[in-house]
Design brief:
Order of helices and strands of chain B: EEEEEEEEEEEE
Radius of gyration of chain B: 14 Å
Number of helices of chain B: 0
Helix content of chain A: under 10%
Helix content of chain B: under 10%
Number of strands of chain A: 11
Radius of gyration of chain A: 14 Å
Largest sheet of chain A: 7 strands, mixed
Oligomer: heterodimer
Structural class of chain A: mainly beta
Structural class of chain B: mainly beta
Number of strands of chain B: 12
Number of helices of chain A: 0
Distance between the termini of chain A: 36 Å
Shape of chain B: globular
Order of helices and strands of chain A: EEEEEEEEEEE
């Protein structure tokens, strides 16, 4: 079955550590997105990528980095520069076109906690 | 810039009753898409319903329907015959029909938590 897989489901980070969240899709989608979800704040865009080897900062990119070396993969690194990383992270993908292909598909999320 | 506002942080409905979740948005664009996504306790985001702005007819999906008022920039979700499985966080979302800044951006509201009472 096609879909988006995020791993791990739960992740713990020590102060000063970098951690990487995985996002893989087999939907052949061009566009991929990373969102952060905090209580009462909805989903905020961290980074997005429309094509391989290209990505753009979203609204809250500080302290995060991404890569898009393959169409299927869009990993997110939470660096030590991110001062408040504890949150729920969602990866999404879409065909990037219009009409009936406007739906964004989501992974199951990663809960990151700083310990 | 586009914004999406959900003014009801939490709503409750009795099982089998009808409930309406509100969403307003702001945009200067003429063409766009609006969505309602459901996030159950599993936290998996699921598309509930989609509306294309150029279509005047309100979208329906089984027990779910929308009231799309383009001039008022309002996009409410009506859930009929509410079921226990409808309990979830519901997000309203906007997507431009235009390819800007290198992608199609989705703008989400802050969500409404729906409780279904047995």
């Amino acid at each position: 079955d096609g879909g988006i897989t995020q791993s791990p489901k739960y992740l713990f980070r020590k102060e000063g550590q970098n951690v990487t969240l995985s996002c893989e899709q087999n939907l052949n989608h061009d566009a991929m997105y990373w969102y952060r979800q905090d209580p009462g704040q909805g989903l905020r865009l961290i980074y997005y990528s429309q094509i391989v080897n290209d990505f753009q900062k979203g609204d809250i990119a500080e302290g995060y980095s991404v890569s898009r070396e393959k169409k299927e993969s869009f990993p997110l690194t939470v660096t030590s520069a991110q001062k408040n990383p504890t949150a729920f992270y969602l990866c999404a993908s879409t065909t990037g076109t219009g009409g009936m292909n406007t739906e964004a598909f989501f992974g199951q999320g990663t809960r990151l906690t700083v310990v | 810039a586009q914004t999406v506002t959900q003014s009801q942080p939490e709503m409750s409905v009795q099982e089998a009753e009808t409930v309406t979740l509100s969403c307003t948005y702001d945009t200067s664009e003429s063409d766009y898409y609006l969505f309602w996504y459901k996030q159950p306790p599993s936290r998996q985001m699921i598309l509930v319903i989609r509306q294309e702005a150029y279509k005047q007819q309100n979208a329906t999906e089984n027990r779910f329907s929308v009231n799309f008022q383009k001039a008022a920039k309002s996009f409410s979700l009506k859930i009929s015959d509410s079921q226990l499985g409808d309990a979830a966080m519901y997000f309203c979302a906007y997507r431009s029909a235009f390819f800007t800044s290198g992608t199609y951006k989705y703008i989400f509201g802050t969500g409404t938590r729906l409780k279904v009472l047995a």
